[in-house]
Amino acid sequence: MLLNEFEKTYSSAQVFVEEFKTLVDKRSAPFDFVTQVRKGPTLLVGEGNLTFSLALAWKPQISPCLLTATTNEERIALDAVTRKHALQLSNLGSRVWHGLDAARLHKNFPASTLETVILQFPNAGSRSSEEGRTKNFILVRSFLRASACLLRKHGRVLISSVDSPFYRGSFQFFEAAKTAGFKPGVPQPFFPGAFPRLCSYRHQRRR
Length: 207
Prior knowledge:
20% strand; 22% helix; 5 helices; two-stranded antiparallel ribbon; single chain; alpha/beta
């Protein structure tokens, strides 16, 4: 799994539009989510059953009140495990929001208030194209555009994606970033094993 990091820029720095030519060296250190989240308010988008949000909230170095965890599904559609995790997050002091559209974040949160926005494993659930683009590209582009105005000046967007030939070329992260005014992404490994308290954490396909 690769982590693609985008940093907002207010300058006219050139953005390179290209897909990753080589894979990240698996010996590289994984991205340090804990240090990044400790910097300030963090929004987690499309969190599935909320295991990753809960894993962060349980880290002793992180104040749970910094976290806002969201799901695509409305509360009535959540399974028992997700509802349990939502309650645990709320009890820890995190904010939980259901039925949030990743492309409309700017409609639900104040501008320039977030230090970090995290999207784990985007998947449009379709291989069809629209406007000559894959739906995964359109999903990421819309998410980045919606996130851009929410970030503080040096805020960051983090996107985790599956390192698989099935998805290769589907997202075009660098080009999507260009349309939202972000610098090029910096890929780093992401190891779920860094969150051992939730050993059930795994990537799940979602529509």
